[in-house]
Amino acid sequence: MAIESTESILNTAARAGSALKSVVLVSSAAAVFNMPFEKKLYTEHDWNTTSEGIVRERGNDAGGFHSYLASKTAAEKVFWKFREEKKPSFGMTSLLPT
User: Fold this and answer.
1) Which residues on adjacent β-strands are paired with residue 23?
2) Which of 7, 18, 25, 26 could, after both became Cys, cross-link 94 (CB 3.0–4.6 A)?
3) Are 7 and 79 in contact (CB under 8 A)?
4) Would you tell me how many other CB atoms lie within 10 Å of the CB of residue 66?
5) What is the DSSP letter of 45?
């Protein structure tokens, strides 16, 4: 659901043309933090790989917590993949509140 929603919004934004100046994704720090949480400086190169792996392994038995974390990570990755592949005319920013 998170992936499809993000893709849908970005595709709609792309159709707006030059009238649209920027798109801001309000994501979550969940997209970059692994569990258990490490105290370190996180950068754009960090992703939550723990929860995605748990959801891949356990499916519906992964539980709501890891499903949420994995969905935030997946949506964030789709956001940046869109920018890389489509090179839209609008700016793209992602906020990751804790």
Assistant:
1) 92
2) 25
3) no
4) 21
5) T
Instruction: Identify any residues that bridge with 93 across adjacent strands, giving them in sequence order.
Output: 24
Pairing status of strand 91-95 against strand 22-26: parallel
Burial of residue 23 (CB within 10 Å: 0-12, 13-18, 19+) is buried
Q: Which domain holds residue 56?
A: 2-95
As a whole number of angstroms, the distance between CA 92 and CA 52 comes to 24
Structure tokens at 40: 């370190």
Confidence of residue 12 (pLDDT cuts 50, 70, 90): very high
Per-residue confidence band for 13, with pLDDT thresholds at 50, 70 and 90: very high
Domain count, the chain: 1
Structure tokens at 30: 């969940």
DSSP for residue 18: G
The reported pTM is 0.87
